[in-house]
Design a protein that fits this description.
alpha/beta; 46% helix; 12 helices; 305 residues; six-stranded parallel β-sheet; four-stranded mixed β-sheet
C-alpha cells in the first residue's frame, strides 16, 4: 500500500524512517530546513534500541508538491495545526483512502470525520518518546514504539486496516488494531496528559517523576482523575492505569519530556488546551472532580499559558 505521513517530527519522522527502511512505500510531508535536509541527506535516526543510522533516500516533500493518491494517511501534526491538513487531505485522498490520526489530543478522529465525510477516518494514538534534535535528525529516548488505531464503528472495519498492522509489524513498529479505540486512545491520553501536566507544573523531565517524591505523587493523582473520567464516560480501563503508566514512564530516558513542555519552554504554540484545560472541562461535563488538574490549570493561566 501507498502511505502518506503528514508531519515529520518525532512521531511522523520515526514512522517514515522505520517503514522506509523496511521497504514500504512511504512519503513524508514536512517543511523548512528539516525537509531540505531530508531531501539532501536522508533522515538520521538516533535511537537507544537500533543505534544511530541514516535512512537515505527517503521520500519527503511539502503539501504543495505532493501529487500522489495514498491508500493510508497517518496524520502526525500538533493539535493546533490539524485544521491545516484538512484541505490537503481532501485534495489527495481517493474514495477508499483511510486516514489514521495519531495526535496527543483525545477525540481527534471523530472531529476529523465530520470534516472529511467522504472518506474513512479512524482514531489512533502512539507510544513513543521522540523529537527533532536538529533538521534532518530524529532523537528517540526509549525503546517503546507502538501505534494503536481502530474504527469508531464496527461496520467501518476494512481489510486494509489489517494490512496496516502487518506493515507496521514488518517495519519494527508494534501495530495494534484496536477493538475499542475510544478506550485505548483514552488510555494513551491517560499517560501523555498527566505527564505533560506534571512536567509543566514542576518544570521537570521524566527523571524527576521516576523518583519517589511530590512530582511522582502528583502524576499518580492526575492519572487517577483520568481513570475516574473513563468510568464516567462508559469506557473503564481494563488495566490498572497507574501501574501500567508508571512502567512506561520508568522505561524512558530520564531526559525525556513531552512535546507540549518543549513547545511551552520555546514560547511556541502548544497543545496545553487539549491536554490540560480540556480535562477540566471534561470533568465538569461528566461530573468528575479534577482538583489536581485544576491546580495545574490555575498555575498555567497565572503564567499566561
Amino acid at each position: 500500500m501507498k502511505y502518506l505521513v503528514i508531519g515529520a517530527g518525532g512521531t511522523g519522522g520515526s514512522i517514515g524512517a522505520y517503514m522506509t527502511q523496511a521497504g514500504k512505500d512511504v512519503t513524508l510531508i514536512a517543511r523548512g530546513a528539516h525537509l531540505k535536509k531530508m531531501q539532501e541527506k536522508g533522515l538520521k535516526m538516533e535511537t537507544t534500541g537500533k543505534g544511530n543510522y541514516t535512512v537515505h533516500p527517503i521520500k519527503a516533500t511539502d503539501m504543495e508538491h505532493y501529487n500522489e493518491q495514498p491508500d493510508i494517511i497517518f496524520v502526525c501534526v500538533k493539535g493546533y495545526s490539524l485544521e491545516d491538513t484538512i484541505p490537503f487531505i481532501k485534495r489527495v485522498a481517493k474514495s477508499d483512502t483511510i486516514v489514521i490520526p495519531i495526535l496527543n489530543i483525545y477525540g481527534t478522529g471523530g472531529r476529523m470525520q465530520k470534516q472529511l465525510p467522504e472518506i474513512l477516518v479512524t482514531d489512533g494514538c502512539i507510544y513513543i518518546a521522540g523529537e527533532i534534535k536538529e533538521p534532518g535528525t530524529i532523537l528517540l529516548r526509549g525503546d517503546i514504539f507502538r501505534i494503536v488505531y481502530g474504527v469508531q464503528k464496527a461496520e467501518e472495519m476494512r481489510p486494509a486496516l489489517f494490512e496496516v498492522a502487518k506493515d507496521l509489524m514488518e517495519s519494527g513498529i508494534d501495530g495494534v488494531l484496536s477493538e475499542n479505540i475510544r478506550r485505548d486512545a483514552l488510555q494513551k491520553f491517560a499517560y501523555v496528559s498527566p505527564m505533560a501536566a506534571c512536567g509543566l507544573y514542576y518544570h521537570v523531565s521524566a527523571g524527576a517523576v521516576q523518583q519517589i517524591g511530590e512530582p511522582r505523587d502528583t502524576f499518580v493523582k492526575l492519572m487517577r482523575e483520568i481513570d475516574a473520567l473513563a468510568v464516567a464516560m462508559g469506557v473503564p480501563f481494563l488495566v490498572d492505569i497507574v501501574t501500567t503508566n508508571l512502567q512506561i514512564l520508568d522505561s524512558l530516558n530520564p531526559e525525556a519530556s513531552t512535546s507540549m513542555q518543549r513547545d511551552v519552554y520555546a514560547d511556541k504554540p502548544s497543545e496545553i488546551d487539549g491536554l490540560i484545560y480540556e480535562v477540566v472541562r471534561m470533568g465538569a461535563q461528566y461530573g468528575v472532580p479534577t482538583p489536581t488538574y485544576e491546580m495545574v490549570a490555575r498555575k498555567a493561566r497565572k503564567e499566561g499559558l
